[in-house]
Amino acid sequence: IFDFLNVGPAHFDALLGLIVSCIDFKKTSKIRTYLNELENLPQKYSSNKLNYYYKIAKAYYLKHSKSNGDIADARNLFKEIFEDSNVEFEKKTFAIINYCEIILKNWEPSNQYDNLDEVKKLTLILIENAKNAFSFLVLAQSYLILSNIAIIEGNINESLEFLLKAKTISENKNLNLQNKIKTIYSKITDSQRISELNILAINDLKQELSNMVLTRR
């Protein structure tokens, strides 16, 4: 793909971007080839530079697997990446966003709420950094994460507020976040339906209890 004997940081970025695009657009026949290229680059630059680029690509690839084991590995890799002092700011941000998305997508009531607290703290850091750097993509993605958290916590109105913020930024800045926005909106409407069904069930139960009392009289 590139002349790797004269490779520089821009080439690492280009290849990583190519891998991410292939994964996003499900061009599976190319993904493994590009991953192998990135993994087997000659050690012209420091191993730390090479390692974290490959780690990011591998983690993003595993994130989209159907295997729970692969997804868990992706989460661990993303955490390693954003905790690594050698990783540049932009890549750390990418790792944090994906780490948070994995936790929220696979969150279950049986999981510890500590995970949600960690995601909240990381997301607030993302928002502060995004505002300082005028990064509208990161800001919108951060609001989507907070919207997801609000759904889990049962705060539907709050979830809608964060979703609206993300949607407004996405539309104003022509960001490609439509699928993520639609997914979260579907979760919100599903939660509202469940709440409505619960209200109906409670009302039915109240009516049954009332009828039982009247019958006994």
Estimate the mean pLDDT confidence: 84
Characterize the overall form.
globular
- Low-confidence spans: 1-5
The radius of gyration over CA amounts to 22 Å
What's the story with the biggest beta sheet? none
The ordered H/E elements are HHHHHHHHH
Percentage of β-strand residues: under 5%
Number of strands: 0
Distance between the termini: 85 Å
Structure classification: mainly alpha
Describe this structure in words.
The N terminus is likely disordered. By secondary structure, the chain is mainly α. The chain folds into 2 domains: 106 residues, no CATH class; 94 residues. It is built from 9 helices and no strands. It starts with 8 loop residues before the first helix and ends with a helix. Helix 8 runs antiparallel to helix 9. It comes from marine sediment metagenome. This is MalT-like TPR region domain-containing protein.
Observed structural traits:
217 residues; MalT-like TPR region domain-containing protein; disordered N terminus; mainly alpha; 2 domains; 9 helices; single chain
Short description:
It contains 9 helices and no strands.
SSE map:
Blueprint lengths: L8 H16 L3 H12 L7 H17 L4 H16 L5 H17 L8 H20 L2 H17 L3 H17 L5 H39 L1
